[in-house]
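During the no-cost extension, the postdoctoral fellow (Dr. R.K.) reprocessed legacy sequence entries with the updated structure-token encoder. One reprocessed record is reproduced below for audit purposes.
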Amino acid sequence: MSTEVTSRTPLRISLFGGGTDLDWYSRSFGGHVLSIAIDQYVDVVVRPTDYDGITLINRGAVQVYASADALPAGIVRECLAVAGGGRGIEITWSSSVRAGAGLGGSSSFTVGLLNALLRYRGGSASAAWLADRACHVEIDRLSEPIGRQDQYAAAFGGVNWFRFGPGVEVAREPVDIGADFLAAAREQILVVSTGGSRRAGAILADVRAGGAGRFEALHALKQLAVRGREALLAGDLKAVGCLLDESWQQKKQLSERVHNSFVDQIYREALTAGAYGGKLLGAGGHGYFLLICPAQRQAAVRAALAEFDELPFAISASGSRTVAQRNVMPGPPDWRRASR
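Re-encoded structure tokens follow.
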């Protein structure tokens, strides 16, 4: 008998400080990020098969490899190198949100796969270990020009204040925002899709290659993160919305690729309809827009953006976790799962 393991790992909304978690900035100046893990997830299933190689299944596509060495460079290959897993396994994964949406999906997949592989081998790991090793996979082994906030948000869950550096240290402080604030937030926060996707790495590489002005913008984003945390703890959603607007204006200074005329038009329509402010989530370009608006203007903002899909969400108090684990007999790869 062998074990089949399913892990579930939350996506995240980055409220303030995104960009200041990039190593080339945070290790010199220190970075601050305020983020929320949400109840949109990446699920990963690892199960044994009697085929000696490795089978990967995602969105109906099946790929079969003779060994881990035969895998193409990428997250799966590097996670197997870090966490183990051996031969004769099938890895299936799915997400409730498309890739490239600005919700940290790639890092959630990395954290979730590491978690599932460890459980499959009979081990376990702390949230801090999962986050650190996910950063190692994506940043050190794959040389992705990304920051570290997504991995930590996915591993820990909840609402968190993260401090990155100076140097290599990472500190986490859970943020207790209270039941009253959560009730108010449900009436005043909207997340809407711009209908596109992008690769964060390309935008963040462009940010790193930018001029000296990028440091001024990142310094400003770090200070806005401090003020945003204070506003959140005070339960002042209007202030949070206005600070998000300031953050968005600073973020646009990092690279011309952060925004475009389509995204700018969506934001203008939201502000005209009564939103306090907001920002495009993730590195920018496309994805989901986070908006804060007074409760009495929420209907108007929704109407103004009616052509765009809204993402319902709540806070996910848990980070990456095992949601199913059972003993199974190794059998042939389950091709039926790929065709569902």
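The longest strand covers residues 31-48. The radius of gyration is 20 Å. The remaining legacy entries will be reprocessed before the final report is submitted.
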